[in-house]
Amino acid sequence: MIKEFKNMIGRTMINCVGYEVNSDIMSFVDGDGNRYSFSHSQDCCENVGIYDVIGDISDLIGSPMLGAEEISSPEPSDYHPSDSYTWTFYRFWTAKGTVTVRWLGESNGYYSEGVDYVELMAA
Q1: Residue 36 in contact with residue 7, Cβ under 8 Å?
Q2: Residue 115 backbone dihedrals phi, psi, to 5 degrees
Q3: pLDDT digit string (tens) for 48-64?
């Protein structure tokens, strides 16, 4: 399943923060001051965060966003957890390059393992 983030398409991002491994929030800001945030509010028995970043985030800055999507995919072969888990992949691309951000959510099976997306449009 693929979910697109159409409001990001055609926008030129001027900043991206929080894309470090284990971070639970990643945000883009475009030239108009709009913010596009991917995050998870942690609860008791869960852990959701960025597992890794494939590509160079700087390729997404200063060039119009050509695509932004969430991709569902089979589990990567390099990870075998013992409890419940959810992989969420985000792929972004501009003319300068493509970046994939892999998020991993783990829990005891009773808590959310997903990533939330919020757009904050400048006034």
Answers
A1: yes
A2: -110, 135
A3: 899 999 999 999 999 99
**Separation in Å, CA 99 to CA 59, 61, 67, 81, 91:** 8, 11, 10, 25, 6
For residues 22 and 9, give the distance between their C-alpha atoms in angstroms, rounded to a whole number. Answer: 26
Q: Is the pLDDT of residue 11 over 90?
A: yes
Distance CA 60, CA 12 (A): 8
Long-range contacts (CB closer than 8 Å, 24 or more residues apart) made by 72-81? 72/1, 72/2, 76/102, 79/51, 79/104, 81/106
**From CA 88, how far away is CA 55, in angstroms rounded?**
16
CA distance 22 to 68: 21
Task: At 58, give phi and psi (nearest 5°).
Answer: -60, -20
Give the whole-angstrom CA distance, residue 39 versus residue 50: 9
CB 105 within 8 A of CB 41: no
